[in-house]
């Protein structure tokens, strides 16, 4: 007969699948010992650039029991966003994760449904849902939960589906059966390191956030430093280069989440269309998109930076 831990864990994983999650893994809510020195060194070397928020809540980033009192388990979940269709050839590029509705909304709703299911089926369970919006080291928890390994480009990788997915968590005060880590399958491959246009992957498993195209086009509020002129490979929001070249992403399959489908106009927009984009078109095409984070002015700044490069 199954013990409760096993039974509850299976319940949760079955429901996660029903809600459309790619996979679900569970780990013990405890201090992330291996991550502490790594994070400390990364911050000390200013690899967070202007992302000062990364310096806040250092202890909470490493210890979920400080985020959710009495927590015992971290339920990690992956949601596929790999698109069926991509942008037209002659276009400024947008990271694939931003094609459709902002993932925060989509995943938060699914996590709430999962938490309610746990409470209905199991009883009084307290917890919180996290989608990239609090000091939680998503990739570290997903790896600890056996969902993949952190690759040399610092993204989570799995053998069966690559890396084009979002990571989210439920941190709950319920004892569950914990999954084992998987092994690293990067081997001697350095495709991501070799392909990074700005040399942001400074060593295997180390990404200097302050040199990353995603950082410049989304996080940085000031002007993009001129020394990076000509190195953006036409990326205007985010960057997928290190994922696109990864051999494991040969196994990526299109998602089946209608909310992640792009606005009909987005995929056919050319460089000229982007250069002429108006505030109205921006609002229409990115109505509920993560691109709103950079705002119309930010996207314009990025497009102008690329346009100047191409002159």
From TrEMBL:
Localization terms from the record: Cytoplasm
Top-level lineage group: Bacteria
Binding site for [4Fe-4S] cluster 1: 186, 189, 192, 246
Record-annotated active site: 132
Annotated binding of [4Fe-4S] cluster 2, by residue: 196, 212, 239, 242
A single BP term in Gene Ontology: tRNA queuosine(34) biosynthetic process
Domain 4Fe-4S ferredoxin-type: 174-206
Keywords linked to the UniProt accession: 4Fe-4S, Cobalamin, Cobalt, Cytoplasm, Iron, Iron-sulfur, Metal-binding, Oxidoreductase, Queuosine biosynthesis, tRNA processing
Any GO molecular function: cobalamin binding
Catalytic activity: epoxyqueuosine(34) in tRNA + AH2 = queuosine(34) in tRNA + A + H2O
Binding residues annotated for tRNA, in chain numbering: 221
NCBIfam families: tRNA epoxyqueuosine(34) reductase QueG
Function description: Catalyzes the conversion of epoxyqueuosine (oQ) to queuosine (Q), which is a hypermodified base found in the wobble positions of tRNA(Asp), tRNA(Asn), tRNA(His) and tRNA(Tyr).
Subunit description: Monomer.
Protein name: Epoxyqueuosine reductase
Organism expressing this protein natively: Pseudotamlana carrageenivorans
